[in-house]
Specification:
15 helices, 0% strand, 72% helix, mainly alpha, globular
Length: 348
Amino acid sequence: MIQAKKNKVAPVSVFFLLYISRIVVSLTSAQLVTTGKMKTDILLSISVSALTTLLVALPAVLCYIKHKNPFDVKWISALYSVYFIFLAAVNISRFSYFASTTLNPDSQAWVFSAILAVCAFYAAYLGIESLARFSAFGFVLLVLTVIAAVLLNFGNFQLLNYYPLISNDAQTVAKNIMYMTSSSSESVIFLCLCKKVNGSAVKPYLWSVAAAFLTIFILFFTVIGIMGDGAVLNAFPLYTMFQMAEIGMIERIDVFYISLWIFGIFIKSVLLIYCSSTVALKMKSKTKCFVSALAAFALSVYFTEFVPVSNVKQLVYIIPFAVFCIVVPIATLIFKKRNYGDELVEKF
């Protein structure tokens, strides 16, 4: 039996954290993660992107198996710290955009960004153990919410919405696969967390990818069945799907969607701030968490106040993904020497 250790989390916690981390991306504006018509071939793109995500994650998994972690190199880990801050800012800004345009149009996006940044700072400072325990609750909430949304919308399905099966051209389908794959930064989070796992982290990570894309498939399958291509007219089609659900006299359960996204974005923001502070240059833990959260807040304000979230081109996300999630792990496998220290610790 694996005994609990301080500053360590169970492998199942890795599954919860990375599953939630990936799901949160799909809750955002549909125009930010897909392109073209919202028709059945989107489901094909999701299925293929699940396979390509596992494929591009292979270098990171091999780095873990061969004890060649890019975070062992100080200047590379500093760059990854900046990358984690960038990811945190992107996620915070997307939720702030949703909150300020859909939930409360009279509010300003930076207020929501500030609240999230402060909460992320405090939770990241508490450490990975606290976040792991909270992620179990977030996972249960997410699964129950998805099941409720699908079942309560069963009467709204229309089979004609799934036809024709192919509506987008090959280029659009390829773009959707690329967008969805590049939205999966969990491989580098996995590399950052692997030393904090009390056991093997490979299987939980791979299962989290499979489970997350299965959930995304179910959500988009439901959206298409309910709204068809009209879903593309909604900036947040999943939110609209929850608005259409009914429970007896309660006609709207969109509060579940809002709660789901709040919990999800909180967990992912904390996870990214924690990872950034973990691999940052030597400073006090509290200082590193504060600097990372402050930088994420500043960048999220830039995305919401100066450059509208919807106007940010996909290349801004794809290029960093390609560099940090694919190129650097491959280069690490080729050029870095094996870390025998980690291997001895693992055997001990």
